[in-house]
Every structure is written in C-alpha cells, then in structure tokens.
Amino acid sequence: MPRKPITPDNAFLRLATLCARSEQAEGDLRRKLHDWALQPSDADAIIDRLKHERYLDNERYARAYCRDKLRFNGWGRIKIGYMLRGKGIEQEHIDAALAEINDEQYAAILDDALTAKAKTLSGKPAEQMRAALLRFASSRGFEPSLIYRALERLTSTE
C-alpha cells in the first residue's frame, strides 16, 4: 500500500523538529525531501526557510560534527574532512571547523589511541607492530607526519 504523500508544510515541520533536536547537514535533509517525493522547487523552498529561520546552518553543523567525531570517535582531520565533504558541506566550512581543533589535544588523542592499540599488539615483532599502528592511525584519518612523530614518542617511552 503506497504511503500518503507528504505536504510541503508537513515536511517543513518534520525537518524543523529534527533540526531542533540535533544539527543536520543540508545534504542529508535534501535526501529526505527527495525520498518523500517532494518537487525540487518545494524542497528548495523548505531548505531556504530552514536556513532563514536558523534551523539549518552548514557551518554550525560542520563545527559540531568535527568536535563530536574527534572527541567520541577519535577520528583525525583527514577522515572528518572526507566525511563532511560526503555530506555536501562546503570546503570553507570544513576548513573553519578543522582549524578549531586544538593541536595539543589532537596529538594527545592520537597518542592515547596508539597506546591503547599497541597494548593489543604486544608480542609482535617491532616492525610488524609499527606497521599495524601506522595502518590503524591512518584508517582513523590522522596525518602521516603526525603519526610518525607519535610513533617516535611511543617507541622512545618503551
């Protein structure tokens, strides 16, 4: 049984409620509107109204996403930027959000992640362990130069 079509007013109310609960990316909301089979002109009007009423702000979303993914997921700048680009966030907003990252905290997060991972790799030869840690940190989206420095710090303390 096909679903009852959603009206533009109902779509706006549903998205405004969603945006009031948590930050949302414009690209994600456009996908929802497309899934609800709204006309592109109606979708554009809804997005414009959400922006005008300050429910939707890509820069604010990028900052919140960056903070959360760094703090809770332990992601690096590369992965955060990649994921934000995938959500359709403009590069200037991504750059501004990534610039807010404190370098000392960022290095500490990388050090903590590498230390925890190294404990799971105990007993392996040093070169295998180093390669595994490098792959691990790279998959988390940290920059290679920072990874090498963190590995040097880690091996010098052992």
What would you say this structure looks like, in words?
This protein has 158 residues and is mainly alpha-helical. 75% of the residues lie in helices and 0% in strands. It contains nine helices and no strands. Helix 1 (8-21) crosses helix 3 (40-52) and helix 2 (26-35) runs antiparallel to helix 3 (40-52). The N and C termini lie far apart (65 Å). The mean pLDDT is 94.
What descriptors fit this protein?
single chain; 158 residues; mainly alpha
Count of distinct strands: 0
End-to-end Cα distance, whole Å, is: 65 Å
- Share in β-strands: under 5%
- What is the radius of gyration? 21 Å
Order of helices and strands: HHHHHHHHH
Helix proportion range: over 70%
Unreliable residue runs: none
- Arithmetic mean pLDDT: 94
Largest sheet descriptor: none
Structural class: mainly alpha
Gross morphology is: elongated
Number of helices: 9
Short description:
The protein has 158 residues and is mostly helical.
Topology overview:
Elements: H1 8-21, H2 26-35, H3 40-52, H4 58-73, H5 77-86, H6 91-99, H7 103-120, H8 126-139, H9 144-157
Helix pairs in contact: 1-3, 2-3, 4-5, 4-6, 5-6, 7-8, 7-9, 8-9
